[in-house]
Amino acid sequence: MKTAFRLLAAASTLTISVPAQAKDGDPVAIADGVNLDLLFNARLRYETVDQASAANDADAITFRLRFGGEIKASDFSVLAEAESTRAFQSDYNDTLPGNGVEPFPVVADPESIELNRAQVSWMKDGTGVTVGRQRIILDNARFVGNVGWRQNEQTFDAVRGQAKIGPATLDATYSNSLRTIFGSDSPNEHFDGDIVLLNAGAELAGVEVKAFSYLIDYDTRAAFSSQTYGVLAKASLPLPGVKLSVTASYARQGDYGANPVSYSADYYSFELGSTLAGFSLGAGYEELGSDGGVASFQTPLATLHAFNGWADMFLTTPAAGLRDYYVKAGKTLKVPGLPGLNAAVVYHKFDSDFGGLDYGTEWDAQLGLKLGPITLLAKYADFNSDGFASDTEKLWLQTEYEF
Question: Whole-prediction pTM value?
Fold first, then answer.
């Protein structure tokens, strides 16, 4: 990481000539064969939460800013990026201790300022190594992701090697520290330990197959230490008059390292997707199993908001496990002057894997618009409890600019 800062500091002393035709985000030549990519992202969000179990509704207006740069020379690169989150309206439980008894629901976007990424890489034709604090997203982020929905990003202090050999890809990471979404002032700002992420795949006859092994041994948070082994497959099936996409996954998880509970649980997922009359349609089933109600399948490194409903009621899998039956539909809307307008709606039904419990149902909906580097989003989630947690409604209004 010190090397990254030295190189960036050296670059700042150079005279940079920006071509007149250069646009935001275009690489800038700073020396012969050396380019600088500027990194910038600004996101303003309003989030409100109405939860039956809380005394008051939560209202949060937060602003997230990321900025940095990446210097590239041939196959080498050095990247550094800072991240800051500020709250302009803070009637919400930001998860930080010392705020007193919160009468508000949780909005997990505490104020923070930190070094988000600082890495050195060598990469040639899909083969290389990255060292430092980095973003890691594997496959669909169901097991390993960056939690990109929250204002503060999840990153890893890690060494990551990647290789592409013909139709095969190999990916191996060792991390000794997970940098969480809870911000620089939180006692949970990071979780140390030994994290090994192994992923290998190939595409054969139109079917993409991945095999993975994820080993997590936390120094603290021992209840989430686990070993997970699984496979993921994706394929497209052209049928008369329609084209189906199929995604299926299976994994087996057990206790690992310092976990005090001995358990084993299975994971299943299956999804069908298609396009009909301009609509993208999908239906699926996901199961995070339970070992007799004692312990359940957990995915603590995942981008969890993307799964099991946007209301985020199942960020930790209940001990009785979770079965999620869902259908979804989306459409790009053809509106003059608004070429990037899109809408989506999702319905979930949640049950337990053990004990025959009904958790509840959820409706999710969103409307998005992309105008060049600017994205606008309105998003809504409505969880109706059937004995699990409590009724919860969430609404987001967001604008984001990035280059």
Answer: 0.90
